[in-house]
Design brief:
SH3 type barrels; six-stranded antiparallel sheet; OB fold (Dihydrolipoamide Acetyltransferase, E2P); 3 domains; single chain; mainly beta; five-stranded antiparallel sheet; flat; 185 residues
Length: 185
């Protein structure tokens, strides 16, 4: 057990049966009150982001999650299959839990699987992935006072806004945190 004021962004803790990841922490101390820690957290099972407030001295059970690299193999229809490259152990994770990550998985990528005591919580993608453009509107001249962008559809089905000079068939880098165009691959 650690004091709630000792939490830092990136820490994981267990509270009331839920596993949380600390996103941000704000310590507030006023003259007549105890220090209050306002912690912005992400529930690792549901993905919901909330804020909790606890007085200093509150004990938190700090935990460590197991992370191991696994290779994405195939889509079974309602789940995705991943394989450990060392032990050849395969696991399946339901598509419902990986709705956002599906936009960046095209096959045979190595991702980091996060688990706690054998329960798979999710996957961690690299910061940027290279994806090929399958459909892109032709460039239309016009309003170039602002950053001129057009729509493009990637090989995974993700729709992104790209600059006018990007053509169909090119590979681009896409950020996995927000799905934005980041540059040419």
């Amino acid at each position: 057990m650690i004091n709630v004021t000792e939490l830092r962004p990136g820490n994981y803790f267990l509270e009331e049966g839920n596993i949380y990841q600390v996103i941000d922490i704000l310590l507030n101390k006023t003259a007549m009150r105890k220090m209050v820690a306002k912690v912005k957290v992400k529930n690792m099972r549901t993905g919901a982001v909330t804020e909790i407030a606890r007085n200093s001295g509150y004990g938190i059970e700090n935990i460590r999650l197991e992370k191991r690299p696994m290779q994405y193999l195939y889509d079974t229809g309602d789940a995705l299959c991943f394989m450990d490259a060392e032990s050849y152990e395969q696991i399946e994770i339901s598509k419902e839990r990986l709705a956002w990550e599906l936009n960046f998985l095209k096959g045979e990528e190595t991702v980091e699987i996060t688990s706690y005591e054998g329960e798979v919580l999710g996957i961690s993608l690299p910061a940027k992935v290279a994806l090929k453009i399958t459909h892109c509107e032709p460039a239309i001249r016009g309003d170039t006072v602002n950053k001129a962008m057009k729509d493009a559809i990637l090989e995974t089905g993700l729709k992104v806004r790209v600059p006018l000079f990007i053509e169909e068939g090119e590979e681009i880098l896409v950020r996995t945190d927000n799905g934005d165009y980041d540059g040419r691959a």
